[in-house]
Structures are given as structure tokens and as C-alpha cells.
């Protein structure tokens, strides 16, 4: 029990000192572990894997010991007057308890399982369609490019099946042990299962219901998109669209059918009007990966945000090296020392990757903004916030207005007439709206596995049940329980929570709307200033509003951070609906003309 007031103050002073020391030491341990992780991710080999596993073990041991030490000195549950102090203790306690959950040998086994799954995924090679004995195709860039560019149904089918065989099938046997280990850690840490453990970061008891609610609000729009695209695809792939109304997953321009932007040419509403894919322009103008990052940096600094430090430019890996295996999946890195921040991306010069560049730069901007917070608060307000920063800026960058401004779109191209706007919005919806059911189902799938609803014998059947139900897509061949098609998506073997991307896709439009108002670029009453054509470039006011939220890190519950950035305290689908309103209206009429009934039999 805590006694008198002055005892309390003494206790808080002592607690602060201990936390300062913890903060200093854990930053060092984190730096070492991040460095070892980085060295492995940019140079996959057995030596580097060993070092990586050793360092991450050291990190866990440190957390365990620290927590033992700290918790022996304080009764931590809300013992302090200072809410920030309580929040810090609460976060350290979760880290500490989960670090202590497994004995060292079993922890090693768990780390090894995770590392093996990611390695299988990152180094998988598939065989070519034209020559089945040539088996040197990587996901990035080879298979991705086939999925994106080929319009040959058989070739697409082959690429899809190859990838799912060479990644998912190989990963399957590791997944059940991974699930068991994850649950054990979560339960020792007082969560019901690993799904609940992930969801803790959203700090809400109703998060699952809130997400379902958001999805229900957006589903009718998704179904309109689905119906329209299905009708258009039926023109290209004559016998592929059948009675059930489901779209074959290999025909949508992306391995996971999570973004359909690459089939834009097959579905463009007004083909004679301008398209906003500026890939050709970028190539003609001699864009390089480095130049794409410089362009992005310039956009951030035009808002008064923090420029990338020299270490970033020196140490980042911006192109795929030829002499070694790397984890190509793009990522941004915080080395916990307030100085080193890097991006690893196998960048290709395309409009799509220009958006990815902004996405990753958004992570680093967040790291820079909260770098002076104590280490435990150097996180997104919730995981979705972290994913939303770069995407929010990219909503401005990819407007025709901005592309003209930076010389990627010819000044004379007319862009604000109705038909060009519909083309543009459809292109955006092929990314943002189409992604929503996918962004939701990946974790719905894993929540239901973690909590025991779905057994190992149903891993693949359940995956396809959700994909049919939510996305309205079906596999290109019969699937069985030898397959593990969820494992063919990076975040599943890599143990990365995925709800963050769904949340990001919703809240980035709330951020965009708020920053656009701040920049004087959006007015709901003014038809000449629609939300989808807003560009916040050079608005210091918008930048300041964004920075104020980012700098808070996770030191306050996310609704408070959102309030700073948007004036709202809830996730809300109204901004995304507002942005796409003209397209949604157009789709309803167009589908009626095409005699398409939205929906499918799942
Ligand atoms: C990759 O790692 C190996 C073994 O640790 C090392 O010898 C080699 O120099 C590294 N390659 C690069 C390019 O860093």
C-alpha cells in the first residue's frame, strides 16, 4: 500500500529515475537487435540468421530481467498520480510478462519457427510457364510482374499455383506450432489468446464490433465495384465468369487480389480520357529509385515536416541487390537510437511504387516525430495510424493536380472534367475500396484460428470460406488441406498483425479530409474543391496539424491523438464515402445498364 502524499511523490521520483535508466538500456538493446535484424534482412544467410536470433533472444532476456527488477520495487497497477507514468508501467509490464512467458529453449524454438517461415517466403523460387525446367523466378519482381501484366489466363493460373505451392504449402507444417506458441505467450500475459493480444493495441473493448460496423457501411460500395469489374473482366476472359458471381482470384492483377489497379486498362470507364498512370513519364524522365525517395522527401519538407537525416540516405537499401538474397517486402526501420532510420525496398520505377515510397517514408516521418518520447511510447497511436501517414500524403501526391505540378503529367491534359474524374476515382477505388475486405479477413482468419474456432484440419477451407464471403473471389483450382494459401501472403508467415491496414485505409481519408480543410483545399459546399482533387503540397498549416499528432507517439490513447489531427475521436467511414461519392453514384447507374446484380453466392 502507498502511504502519505509525500511518500507518493518520493515514489514517483524514484519511479522516474528507474524508468529513465530502463529507457536508456532498452534503447541500446533495441539498437543491437534492430541492427542484427537489418543485416539479415538485407543479406539472408545462415550466419546472419544466427546472429539475428541471438540478438533477439538477448532483447527478450533483457525485457524479462528488467521487468522482474522493476515489478519487485513497485505495485504497478495505477499506483501513481501521474497518468503518463502509469501508462508507461502498463506497457513495460506487457513487454516484460510476454518476454518471461517461455523458457529459453522453447523461446529459441519459437523464434526459429518464425524465422524459417519468413525465409521460405522470402527465398521461394517458382518455375516459368513457358519452360517448366527454368525455376528461378522470385516473387519480386518476376511473379509480381506476370500477375500484373499478363492477360493469358493459363499463364496467370500457372504463376498463381506455383507461388502458392512454393510458399504456402512449404510453410503449412510450421503454422500450428506457431499458433500454439503465440497463444501460450498471450495467455501467460493475461490475454485470452494471441488475437486478443494483438487487439490490445487498439485500446477498445468494442474494436471487433467497430471494425465489422465499418465494413458493413462500406460493403455495398465494394459490391458495386465487384459487380462492375466482374462484368468488364467477362469481356476479356470469356468463359471465366460463371453463375456463382465469384471472380477467379488470379485475374485481378495481383497475387492476393488485394489491389486491382493493374487491370485498370481492362475496366477503364472512359478509355478515350486521360489515365493517371504516369509510369511511362517517370521512365522517360529517367526516374531512379533514389529520385523517387527524393521527391517524397521534398513533399514532406514542403509541409514543414522533418527531412530524412544523412544516415537515412547513406544506409537505406533502395534497390534489389544482385549478389545476395534479401527480404524484398518493403519496410521502414527505427534503430531506437534517435539517429538511424532506414528503408529497405526493392524499388521499381512505377506509379504504384511511388505510392509505396511515400507509404514507407510516412513510417520514418513518424519515427522522427516521436523520437524524443521514451522508448515505450515510440509507437503509432495505434497500429493503423502508422500505416496511414504516408498513404495520407500519397492521396495528395497522386492527384492529377499534383502530378502536373511536379511535371509528371502534361499541363495540357484536361483533368477536371467529369469523365476524367470518374476514371481517376475508379483507379483509386481499385486500390482503396477493393483492399477493404482483404484487409479485414486476414486477421479475422487468424483471430478465429488463435481462439480455437478453426482447427488445423480446416486451415485452408476456412481461408477460402472467408475469401469467398468477404472478397467474392474463388481459387483457380481445387484447393485441399495440403495447401496453405494464407501462408502465401507475407504477413502470415512473418507474424505481422494486419488489421492495421484496414484501419489505415479508413482513417487516412479522415486525416486527408482534415488536412485538406486546414490547407484550404477542400470545401464540401464548393464543387470546384472536391476532396479527391485536394493537394496539401506546401501547406505548413496542414503539416503542423499532422506533426502535432505524430509527435505524441503512443503516449496517449489513440482517440486523443485523432482528436488533435481531425477533431474526431472515432474511426468513421464518412470521409472515404465523401471522397468516392461521384464514383459510387456512377457505378450504381452503370451496373444497372450492364444488368449486373451486385453480390455473389459464397
Ligand atoms: C553478407 O553476409 C556475409 C556473412 O555474414 C558477409 O561475409 C558478406 O560480406 C555480406 N555481404 C554483404 C554485401 O554485406
TrEMBL record:
<dbReference type="GO" id="GO:0004180">
    <property type="term" value="F:carboxypeptidase activity"/>
</dbReference>
<protein>
    <recommendedName>
        <fullName>Angiotensin-converting enzyme</fullName>
        <ecNumber>3.4.-.-</ecNumber>
    </recommendedName>
</protein>
<feature type="disulfide bond">
    <location>
        <begin position="328"/>
        <end position="346"/>
    </location>
</feature>
<dbReference type="GO" id="GO:0005615">
    <property type="term" value="C:extracellular space"/>
</dbReference>
<feature type="active site" description="Proton acceptor 2">
    <location>
        <position position="360"/>
    </location>
</feature>
<dbReference type="InterPro" id="IPR001548">
    <property type="entry name" value="Peptidase_M2"/>
</dbReference>
<dbReference type="GO" id="GO:0046872">
    <property type="term" value="F:metal ion binding"/>
</dbReference>
<keyword id="KW-0121">Carboxypeptidase</keyword>
<feature type="active site" description="Proton acceptor 1">
    <location>
        <position position="360"/>
    </location>
</feature>
<keyword id="KW-1015">Disulfide bond</keyword>
<feature type="binding site">
    <location>
        <position position="363"/>
    </location>
    <ligand>
        <name>Zn(2+) 1</name>
    </ligand>
</feature>
<feature type="active site" description="Proton donor 2">
    <location>
        <position position="491"/>
    </location>
</feature>
<keyword id="KW-0479">Metal-binding</keyword>
<keyword id="KW-0325">Glycoprotein</keyword>
<keyword id="KW-0645">Protease</keyword>
<dbReference type="GO" id="GO:0008237">
    <property type="term" value="F:metallopeptidase activity"/>
</dbReference>
<comment type="similarity">
    <text>Belongs to the peptidase M2 family.</text>
</comment>
<feature type="active site" description="Proton donor 1">
    <location>
        <position position="491"/>
    </location>
</feature>
<feature type="binding site">
    <location>
        <position position="387"/>
    </location>
    <ligand>
        <name>Zn(2+) 1</name>
    </ligand>
</feature>
<feature type="binding site">
    <location>
        <position position="202"/>
    </location>
    <ligand>
        <name>chloride</name>
    </ligand>
</feature>
<dbReference type="GO" id="GO:0006508">
    <property type="term" value="P:proteolysis"/>
</dbReference>
<feature type="binding site">
    <location>
        <position position="500"/>
    </location>
    <ligand>
        <name>chloride</name>
    </ligand>
</feature>
<keyword id="KW-0378">Hydrolase</keyword>
<dbReference type="Pfam" id="PF01401">
    <property type="entry name" value="Peptidase_M2"/>
</dbReference>
<dbReference type="GO" id="GO:0008241">
    <property type="term" value="F:peptidyl-dipeptidase activity"/>
</dbReference>
<feature type="binding site">
    <location>
        <position position="363"/>
    </location>
    <ligand>
        <name>Zn(2+) 2</name>
    </ligand>
</feature>
<feature type="disulfide bond">
    <location>
        <begin position="127"/>
        <end position="135"/>
    </location>
</feature>
<feature type="disulfide bond">
    <location>
        <begin position="516"/>
        <end position="534"/>
    </location>
</feature>
<keyword id="KW-0732">Signal</keyword>
<feature type="binding site">
    <location>
        <position position="359"/>
    </location>
    <ligand>
        <name>Zn(2+) 1</name>
    </ligand>
</feature>
<feature type="glycosylation site" description="N-linked (GlcNAc...) asparagine">
    <location>
        <position position="43"/>
    </location>
</feature>
<feature type="binding site">
    <location>
        <position position="359"/>
    </location>
    <ligand>
        <name>Zn(2+) 2</name>
    </ligand>
</feature>
<keyword id="KW-0482">Metalloprotease</keyword>
<keyword id="KW-0862">Zinc</keyword>
<dbReference type="GO" id="GO:0005886">
    <property type="term" value="C:plasma membrane"/>
</dbReference>
<feature type="binding site">
    <location>
        <position position="387"/>
    </location>
    <ligand>
        <name>Zn(2+) 2</name>
    </ligand>
</feature>
